[in-house]
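R.M. (postdoc): so does anyone remember the format we settled on? I'll just put the structure tokens first.
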């Protein structure tokens, strides 16, 4: 998806944004027992490129599971935060951090993790 322009800076190609993804944010509501419930509200449906990065097995809570990381690239959005998630083909990806490519508010790369326990 990356190419180098004549000015030498890295550019992202719009044609690579071929996956429709949903960006969601958590909504917390108090319950009667003093705790709370978390539901997910849609922030936006956007076109993105989803690139698998790595995978590994982990032993967590007495269970063997997997961790798969993805890079989700989209047009710039100022409203993406690390507590959000991105849904791609019905699978939730937790946003770990988001990077403003070149600092020009044109492209956003979200490093995400899919948990499968």
């Amino acid at each position: 998806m990356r190419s180098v322009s004549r000015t030498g800076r890295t550019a992202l190609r719009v044609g690579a944004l071929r996956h429709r993804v949903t960006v969601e944010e958590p909504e917390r509501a108090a319950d009667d027992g003093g705790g709370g419930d978390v539901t997910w509200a849609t922030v936006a449906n956007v076109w993105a490129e989803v690139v698998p990065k790595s995978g590994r097995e982990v032993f967590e809570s007495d269970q063997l599971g997997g961790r798969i990381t993805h890079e989700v690239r989209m047009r710039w959005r100022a409203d993406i935060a690390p507590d959000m998630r991105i849904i791609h083909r019905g699978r939730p990806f937790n946003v770990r951090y988001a990077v403003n490519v070149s600092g020009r508010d044109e492209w956003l790369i979200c490093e995400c993790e899919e948990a499968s326990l």
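R.M.: ...and that's the designed sequence above, right after the tokens. Also worth knowing: The first strand starts at residue 2 and ends at 4. The beta strands are 2-4, 10-12, 19-30, 36-60, 63-75, 85-88, 91-100, 107-116.
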